[in-house]
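User: I'm writing a tutorial on reading structure tokens. Could you give me a worked example: one chain, its sequence, then its tokens, then a sentence or two explaining what the tokens reveal?
Assistant: Sure. Here is the example chain.
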Amino acid sequence: MHCRPLRLALLVTPLIAGLLVAPAGAQTTHLVGPGGFATIGDAVAAAVDGDIVHVAPGTYPRVSINKALTVRALTPGTVVLENGPFLSGIAAPAGKAIHVIGLEYRGFTITNGSVTLDQCTFVSNGDILVAVGGRCHMQDCMVLGRGPAIINPNAALVVDHAFVSAIGSTFEGTSATGGYNGVSVGVDVRVGTFQASGCTIQGGNGPTSRPGLIADAESTIWLSDSNVISDPAVCPIEAASAHGRQARTTLTPNCGALPSGPLLGIRRTAPMTPGGTLDLAFLSEPNEPIGVFANLLIGFQPGVLFEQPNLLGGGCQPVGMLFTDATGNASASWSIPLVSALVDRGVWVQGFAGLSAPIRTSSLAGGVVR
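And here are its predicted structure tokens:
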């Protein structure tokens, strides 16, 4: 079954709860911390695809994750993966996904395959987070360059032959401190695609200054409702030959822009909790219909029907139809049942705008219930 956004004219509003109460597969929850495993690496070694890893507050050794797991800090912002002599890798098995929630990585991290990052922080000097191949989706994350960078870095986020989508996230390049010249951009896209909504992207500065975002001629940038910042000596975007465009985005200084045009933005007010609500805001053209679809899984379906990819893949279901107001804003809210069995399960939502091909799509919102 495939998601068919061309049917948006059918006003359908089944509750998102109908997706959430679908049967879950067998899975085991592993605890890291008091009463459980000593390290995240020990829990990952014991887990199998589909398992859950809960991490109690603390500082732990760096770890590589190569199984289809959900790894979640029980309290986001209290779990730190310390710097070390090797990188942290997050590499999902083919056809599966890894979900990481609430962890702080210190040092170089690389992702591959299908990975989602929610309320995660990455702090380092030089290149901090590199997506090589595959797809990475980020919600409410921070990628922060913190010097000094002894070697010349490229970017806080490097998108290398990969697709990266982000909402509500910050990408801050490394600035030079002390006697070092290591200065980086916020996001560097190389033969890849970067789709961002509600993000802040800032280039580093020092003896030299760098743009907030750079992209080569073989890359595509979809940038909506965001801020791109650089030192006044350089333009914040260096992507004159890249494909794509920007919408409702502020550049400081105001130069080096991508072409302007309509894009569908999305914002998530807060993560989902049992008994709470999923509140989403959409930003688009005035008085425009927006179809909203959801799925328990993420996917990737490019094609002639979509200007940006359908990130829900096959099996998605319609959960509502909205109309933006005269300023291009629309919002929606769905109740999350107060059912403990929903914890650590995911639901993903995407908007589709337009009644003829190519359909404009938003990034993803939603994530793991917790």
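What the tokens reveal: Confidence is low (pLDDT under 50) at residues 4-15. The longest helix spans residues 40-46.
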